[in-house]
């Protein structure tokens, strides 16, 4: 469970002046579910819901990392062979034991 996700979600929601019901409606989830997430009683939601929350909060990528998710644009970049080679080379230089 991500202990920082819920409190950060709540903080962003309050800073944005949104009620739990309003944010839940904008994200397409039940207010009771969102309350459980904010209190750390439920895991962070799926990436698509996190993205809706971030849009409603006007806080791009503020929650993605806290939820242990990797942003889609980063995943797309990491799938490119030239990026994979560069990352691998960097890991080998930084961590010699990484070479296999």
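^ Assign residues to that structure.
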């Amino acid at each position: 469970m991500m202990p920082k996700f819920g409190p950060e979600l709540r903080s962003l929601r309050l800073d944005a002046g949104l009620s739990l019901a309003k944010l839940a409606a904008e994200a397409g989830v039940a207010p009771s579910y969102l309350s459980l997430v904010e209190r750390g009683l439920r895991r962070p939601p799926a990436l698509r819901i996190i993205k809706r929350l971030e849009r409603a909060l006007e806080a791009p990528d503020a929650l993605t990392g806290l939820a242990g998710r990797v942003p889609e644009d980063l995943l797309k970049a990491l799938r490119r062979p030239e990026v994979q080679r560069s990352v691998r080379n960097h890991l080998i230089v930084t961590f010699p034991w990484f070479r296999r």
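Residues 91 and 97 are 9 Å apart (CA to CA).
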